[in-house]
Amino acid sequence: MVIHVAHSPDSDDAFMFYAINQNKIDTKGYRFIDVLSDIETLNQKALKGVYEVSAISIHAFPYVADKYALLSSGASMGDNYGPMIVARESFDVSELKNKKIAVPGKLTSAFLALELFLETSDFDYEVIDFDEIIPAVKEGKVDAGLIIHEGQLTYQDEGLVCIVDLGKWWYEKTGGLPLPLGGNVIRKDLGEEVMKEVSEILRESIKYSLEHRDEAVEYALKYARGMTKEKADRFIGMYVNELTVDYGERGRKAIELFLKEAYEKGFIDTLPEIKFV
């Protein structure tokens, strides 16, 4: 049986699926095919139920919960760190509502976290591909940028400053919960047995990479967009860890609170029942 696994072309996702792609573990007769695309495109594809397994933003989950269940592994959580607003020069966070901000997509969890932080959806923003946000800020096309992925480690190299780290803000606001950013979902129409088997294979892939870190990081470097191995290893460690193997109580609580607050403030239209596989 063919299972398409759609994910971002990033070092952390590549690290997670290394064992499957390089035949390091038993895939129990399933054939896994990688599909690489940016997270906002994956969110849009998930709305249509295109892929059997897909990385999505937690922000997007309420809109795909009729078709997909959340896998209990594969989470990207910002544990006292996360998406950042960066700018050319420092300014007070109270000025953000009056700035033009480049964002990586309206369905990204980073965007929802920004709405929660600003307590409004009424601010000036422009959707730009995530890897074009730092250049747009540097060139003055926008006043600030909401950065995700490796940009969180490289923005200073580009001469930019951090106005607010939304992961730190959420951690302090919630008394120590991680900020839920991305997760892996699996299509419900595959049936319970297939869903459970695929879930276990994906979990084993993550565990294999964590147990064989050096070789998995080496493989993931091709997706690290020019980062050194040391910096790529650090980035991978931020988003592939024990919370990625399983959300655990903290991770589940964080998702529930993130979506509950978004629903209560009117930033999402529905509050789904969260089914983990």
Tell me about this structure.
The protein contains 13 helices and eleven strands. The protein is of the alpha/beta class. The strands form two sheets. Strands 1, 2, 3, 4, 5 and 11 form a six-stranded mixed sheet that branches. Strands 8-7-9-6-10 form a five-stranded mixed sheet. The longest helix has 20 residues, at about 190-210. It is globular, with a radius of gyration of 18 Å. The mean pLDDT is about 95.
Q: How would you summarize this macromolecular structure in one to three sentences?
A:
The chain is 40% helix and 18% strand. It is built from 13 helices and 11 strands.
Number of helices: 13
The stretches of 5 or more residues where confidence is low (pLDDT under 50) are none
Helix share of residues? 40-55%
The average pLDDT is: 96
Structural class: alpha/beta
Total beta strand runs = 11
Overall, the morphology is: globular
**CA distance, first residue to last residue:** 19 Å
Largest sheet: 6 strands, mixed
Order of helices and strands: EHHEHEHEEEEHEHEHEHEHHHHH
Q: DSSP strand (E) fraction?
A: 15-25%
Q: What Rg is obtained from the alpha carbons, in whole angstroms?
A: 18 Å
